[in-house]
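User: Hi! I'm a student and our assignment asks us to look at how structure tokens line up with a sequence. Could you show me two examples?

Assistant: Happy to help. In each example below, the sequence comes first and the structure tokens follow. Example one:
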Amino acid sequence: MRVALLLNPRAGTLIDRPELLGRIPAILREAGLDVTVITANAAPDLPGQLEAALALRPDVLVVGGGDGTIRSAAARLAGGSVALGVVPLGTLNLLARDLGMPMEPEAAAAALGQGVIRAIDVAEVNGEVFLCQSVIGLPNRMGLHRERVRGRGGLAARWRVVLGFARAWWRHPMLRLGLRMDDGPVLRVWTRAMSVVNNAYTEAPGQMFHRPRLDAGLLSLHVARDFDPWWLAKLLVAMAAGHWRKRPELLSGETETLAILSRNRHLRVMNDGEAMLLETPLRYSIRPRALRVLAPPEAVAIGAGPAEPLG
């Protein structure tokens, strides 16, 4: 099994633990994989490094980083024969969790050596890929404040994030949007926040933001009828208790395609933590089982496509 390994040096875990730059390749080789490391010398940016990795014609591209880095790699690999392996080095690592990967990077690298290949869905909005969720509205503003201080320590940086969050809570206007699911009628909504999820979150006690299926071929839509700290606290409690989907403060639905209409010419969208400004209308769709991934064999039981043996 030929593996190209690409580690994002700006990932938070690597900044805190630089020794992983050497440990992860060593663990993959100990697992019997033929590993070539793609360094920063290969190209000045991530797209160029991805091309350098694919030029080696690997069976698997293993990427170490957060969900945004994984998203960029998936956009390049979707629809092709090269499988994606994930080493979680970010903050949330949502895809890695749903794939059943260990959250410890060294354990995740070891698990890839015993992995199997399966296929999962890829979601898109106006051609931009996301594997986990696409968010519109207030959470984007909050995410931008967080990105501005990424990598900076100290009380001053944290205080700027808190102040930025507070300003976002009180200043972000309501959005007037039209929603058309599949070919149905347009539903008019006012909201400060909404998300489109690639496959649905489960509704079970203690299973917050977990997707048991990654190949169901459906988008899951959630529109907040309100979005203030008290509303968010109630929703999180309901999610932890496992009975959140039918709450009156939340409009939810499932669809294969979604169009979001707005009077604004552009809307700011955050796909798997990556912010972008997209022209309206926003057109969402899903590509069933378009991405091959490498994951632990026991994770196949949660329903993310049939497994292929490694090698």
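Example two works the same way, sequence first and then tokens:
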Amino acid sequence: MLSIVATPIGNLGDITLRAIETLKKCDLIVCEDTRVTGNLLKQLEIPKRELMSFHSYSDKRKLDEVIAKLQSGSHVVLVSDAGTPGISDPGYALASAVRDAGIKIEVVPGPSAFLAALSGSGLPINAFVYLGFLPLKKGRKTMLDSFKEEERTIVLYESVHRIEKTLNELAEALKDQPGRPVVIARELTKMHEEILSTTIGNLSDVAKSITKKGEFVLVIGAV
């Protein structure tokens, strides 16, 4: 069986009892970075487990190896560095291969940065579109321009290295909608968590003053 286990995005207290029990009893943990997951196990006082790295650069042999272990009866856990596996990480490829092989999958739900940002945004979330990270080059401007007509709340991730650029690009792309609300969530669940509410018309000023530390989630209100 493959267990897909969500892990904390910052605050260790967000780990669930079910996640801890699953991590304790599994035979193998497939993760993005073995150092990150190894440290998590240590913090949770979970005995050492076999760890296997699986990331966007992993080749098909890794997938085949995991499938073989599952078919031999091993209990395998899939985690990401933080949050729910498969969201802006390669975990979906493993889940898809396991599903195609007819092997049972269980999900142990828990933290997710974009859901936390949505719930704290104060914006309508009965209908929303999650976009992950914007394209770095090809298709970036086209996607930003498409936001002009989007009737659902938009949520996306951004790194500390590109947050100022992205906020300025949003301000330019949506300059004809200056009153449109934007919520910027930073360092969710961590000591310096910040959730800032603003508008498209103020984004350029916010881009200059916002603290350039941590990871960001942007929530853009509908048209």
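Here is something you could point out in your write-up. The chain has two domains: 2-108, 113-220.
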